[in-house]
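Could you show me just one protein sequence together with its fold in token form as a worked example?
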Amino acid sequence: MDFLFTLQVNDEVEVVGVVRLTEPRKPFVPQNNVERNSWHYRDLEAMSSVTGAEPIFIDSDLASTIPGGPIGGQTRVTLRNEHMQYIMAWYGLCTATSYMWYIKFIKKIKL
């Protein structure tokens, strides 16, 4: 989302993607620079005022790429696989709680 451009397409084009909403500026993210056409977060109202377009943002898939125009498939979603960390944390908590329960109720030792 570093730049915007205007492209006139005369043919019918099918665009497949996700419609995105305006997102609030997060802390430590720089302000958008409208004069330099540099965008760090989605501000649809500002983007539409610069381009003269409707305030609609479509995050298109790779198949919706138009030669010489918008390039689809730019959003990359990666999900971290932290299952082993969760397993170790929850089994560790279960083991520690079970041991404390054993000490308190079976051995009758005051904790």
